[in-house]
Amino acid sequence: MARRSKLAKVAGLGLLGALTLSGCDVTGSWLSWGWPEGITDQAERMHDLWIGSTIAALVVGIAVWALIAYATIRYRKRGDELPRQTAYNLPLEVVYTIIPFLIIAVLFFFTVNTQNEVRDVSDDPDVTVQVNAFKWNWQFVYPETETAGGEAVSTVGTSTEIPILVVPTDQTIRFELNSADVIHSFWVPEFLFKLDIIPGQDNGRDNVFEVTVREEGAYVGRCAELCGTYHAFMNFELRSVSPEAYEDYLAAREEGLSVYDALVLIDEPGNAVSTQPFAPQREQAVASDD
């Protein structure tokens, strides 16, 4: 009975640690182990979920390793006599059935809560951007703007120019995603989030998400779904600027300025700085070497 009591205490402590740490706020702490914190409010929630799950897994792993070490040392072979065999141990079976169920239930609870918060959309976002993916580049449309020609401001990438998606900080931004051909995936690593773009959904809820960016800067964006020959070079740049600079940028674009000139006007680099376009001459050089 003493052994069973000791085993139950160890298992209970492991469970308590796993459940407690899975709900901790670890943003910015050393417990992140180098994992990026993200630049959006939603990223903070996902950061806490992943780090909390990792810590819980580590606690469970340490408990299992400790039990393995204990059994190896305590019940090591001491002679040729066969140890006493135990056919059934109901308390132990109950413990190792209930504990995994509780761990899974807790992780499921936090995962669903985080997912609901991350995918939640508001009725009236501050900014709306339509993202159109196609093989193998991106188009960004600002539907609430209007140029002299009566069309909305639009940015389209080419094989020689990385498209720059300009967004404001500290405002709710809704991304409405659409694919012109195959499945693509909109991914900014600093969002700690990506969303597959399923063609044919006409910007339905499944192709919509919102973020609030808190950091200014230039961040690479990628297609995270294998979509064909040049998938690896289907990049874009997210440029987050102050709300005032964002309004000046859109005003300049509405007046007919190019992306480059409008960015320079708000004291931003006119070209992408986080990634570079695919160089066709490199492919030709490789082909000639073959």
From TrEMBL:
Residue stretches making up the Cytochrome oxidase subunit II transmembrane region profile domain: 27-122
SUPFAM superfamilies noted in UniProt: Cupredoxins, Cytochrome c oxidase subunit II-like, transmembrane region
Cellular compartments per GO CC: plasma membrane
Family annotation (InterPro entries): CcO_II, CcO_II-like_C, Copper_CuA, Cupredoxin, Cyt_c_oxidase_su2, Cyt_c_oxidase_su2_TM_dom, Cyt_c_oxidase_su2_TM_sf
Domain of life: Bacteria
Listed cofactors: Cu cation
A single MF term (Gene Ontology): copper ion binding
UniProt keyword Iron present: no
Annotated cofactor note: Binds a copper A center.
Biological process terms in GO annotation: ATP synthesis coupled electron transport
EC number: 7.1.1.9
Keyword Protease: no
Catalytic activity: 4 Fe(II)-[cytochrome c] + O2 + 8 H(+)(in) = 4 Fe(III)-[cytochrome c] + 2 H2O + 4 H(+)(out)
Domain Cytochrome oxidase subunit II copper A binding: 124-252
Keywords: Copper, Electron transport, Membrane, Metal-binding, Oxidoreductase, Respiratory chain, Translocase, Transmembrane, Transmembrane helix, Transport
Gene3D superfamilies in UniProt: 1.10.287.90, Cupredoxins - blue copper proteins
Places the protein is found: Cell membrane; Membrane
Coiled coil start-end: none
Chain segments annotated as transmembrane: 50-73, 94-112
Membrane-protein topology: Multi-pass membrane protein
Family membership: Belongs to the cytochrome c oxidase subunit 2 family.
Task performed by this protein: Subunits I and II form the functional core of the enzyme complex. Electrons originating in cytochrome c are transferred via heme a and Cu(A) to the binuclear center formed by heme a3 and Cu(B).
Matches recorded under PANTHER family: CYTOCHROME C OXIDASE SUBUNIT 2, CYTOCHROME C OXIDASE, SUBUNIT II
Protein name per the record: Cytochrome c oxidase subunit 2
Organism: Modestobacter marinus
